[in-house]
Structures are given as C-alpha cells and as structure tokens.
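Why do we bother with holo predictions? Because pocket geometry can differ from the apo form. Keep that in mind while you read this record for pyridoxal-5'-phosphate.
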Amino acid sequence: MNQFVYFDHNATTPMTVGVANMISDTLVVGGNASSIHAAGRLARQKVEDARDKIAKLVGARASEVVFTSGGTEANNLVLRGIKCKHIMASTVEHDSVLDAAENIECLAVDENGIIDLVAFEKRLDKTEGQVLVSIMLANNETGVIQPVAEVSKIAKKYGALVHTDAVQACGKIKLDREELGVDFISLSAHKIGGPQGIGALIVNEEVQLNSLMRGGGQERGRRAGTENLSGIAGFGVAVEFVESRSHVAKTRKLRDALESSIKRIAPGIIIFGGNVDRLPNTSCIFMPGVSSETQIMKFDLKGIMISAGSACSSGKVQPSHVLRAMGIDNSVASNVIRISLGNVNTMDDVDYFVQEWEKIYLSANASKFMEVA
Ligand code: PLP
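The structure, written out:
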C-alpha cells in the first residue's frame, strides 16, 4: 500500500490540533456555563467567546447564535421551531431538511441541481400564509452552489422567511448573512475541523423560534439543555482556521488537477455540476462499468478513502436522491463517487488517486477498448 489518502472531507473533516487541545483543556477544567460561581463563569466565558467568533464569521450578532448538537438539529430546529403555514425546500436538500417536517413542498432543480427561480416565484405567488423556504448554500454530494441571495430577494417580495443549510459551504466559500439575505443559517463544526456533535443555528431575532426540547432556559429559551462546553469551545477554535480560508485556493488547484487528469484518461467522463459554480473541494464523478460500492472498496484496499455520490448513513449505499432530482438515471447514479478534499491533501495524493482510478477504469472497460480495436 502506498499511503493513506483521505478524500472524504464532506463527510467529516479531521480535527485540527488546536481544536483537540482546546477540547481536552476544557474537559479537564469543566464547569457548567449556567453556574454563577467561578467555574461556571469561566465556562460561560468560553461559550460566549465561541459564540462571538461564529457570529463574526457569518456577519451576525452573538445573540443570534443558538448552539445545537450539529447541522441535523439546526435544520430540525428551524423547520419545526418556526410557526409557519407552509414550508418549501429544494429536492436536493440534505435529509435532515427533507425529513424534518411533514408536507414540505419540494422545489424542482435543473440538470445541474440548481433551483428554478421562475417556478419558485410562481409557487410563492400562489401560496397563502407565512412561508418558510429552505435552500442549501452548497450541496454535500455535488458541491453545486445555489443562488441563495436571489432566492431571498424573491422570497422577501412575498414576505417569506428564508433558511439556508450552509453546513457544507462554511469554510469553503464566503458566508455572509446580509449578502445572502437569509433569516436562518445552519452550521456544523465537524465539517470545518471542529468536533462532531456540535453545530449552530443563526437566527433572525425578530422571528419567534420555539425550542424543540422542554427544560431549562438555555440559549435564550431557544434550545433547552446544558451547553456542550468542550464542543462549543472546540467549534470556536475551528472557526478561527476557517476565517483565514487559506486552504481554499490549494484544494481548488488539487481538485481541478484531479479532474483534468481523469478527463485525459477518459474524455467522455461525467463530472456532475462540473460546468456550474461549485465548492472548490468537491468532485462527483461517474465511472462506467463500476458501481459506487465496488469503487469504494477498491479504493479502500489501496488506502484511499472516498464516498459514494449518495447517502450511506447505515453503511449501505442508497441511490442518491440528489442525482435523481437532477434527472440522472439510476444506472448512472449507482456508479458515482464523491471526492472531497481538504487542507491535509497534497498533489502526491491526487497523483496516487488518479493512478488507481485509471487501473479500476481500464480493468472494467478493457473489453470495450478491445471491441473498438
Ligand atoms: N446538512 C448538510 C448539507 C450536510 O452535508 C450534513 C452532514 O453531512 C448535515 C446537514 C448534517 O450535519 P451533522 O452531521 O452535523 O448533523
């Protein structure tokens, strides 16, 4: 085996040393942020420091940051905690949006996975009562970026509230609440080098948000339960790294080099979302003749970690609802993998991946080449 290559940063991004140190220090010191004695005040200080950093990252006020157990809870909190008559969401949203509420009206996307703004406005025009629309900033499988600022402009004409799931976009592209014009933003720490099990919902304070849990009055009554102190402190440190975004140009260069090499080997290859605005680290690639599962296993045997272009939360690869929504046939969608790069990757990793990709591709497609010859 050559080396270990981690190309699955959209699933989770390895924790930085600074984050791990902050977590272990915080765990040792302890304290409950609601206690009024010295240990409690120290814990509160850590929570509020992290809150300030997260607020600054997205251009919000600290009081608008509600800590949650992750992106899934942030999405559930907004979709279930806001009083509205009608929820609309795109068909390519994460399951934590699509499954968060009953009767979500799904908004179609085009072949690149981008929402149809004209159809959206027509639907809004015909809908009565308070609407909440949820459109992700960037897709976790393809990396395709949605026109969220345009969605907000249209939504505001009709008095609709707008939520964006920015779990994947955070740290990879600019994230400014005002520019996006949204009322709510979901974030998750483990996608940016922070710990798993902590996230945040950025909340427009003018809108009443009801806590999903009953209990204490933490997070200004918007999320009951003792704050996850070490997780929050670690999230705060992870945000400092994101603020610099120094790794973004590097990952884009690596991702583009990877795609160019693959296209040279197999000129007809499909890269989903390849011609539209995408996250700089993500590539969603179809390989003829080899299923996603087989590709994952073959790469894994070589020490390369990737994922299917689909959700595999229970360890089993399911057909991707994202690719289906983009009109991709199941026979194609079942041969798609997702590569997501991060700060730790190098050009050596890319070269090694391309070398192994070529071997798998050629062994599966050799008979076709022989037929042509
Ligand atoms: N939203 C998107 C777009 C995601 O990619 C994910 C995780 O993969 C989530 C939400 C859920 O975040 P968490 O793992 O923090 O619950």
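The radius of gyration is 22 Å.
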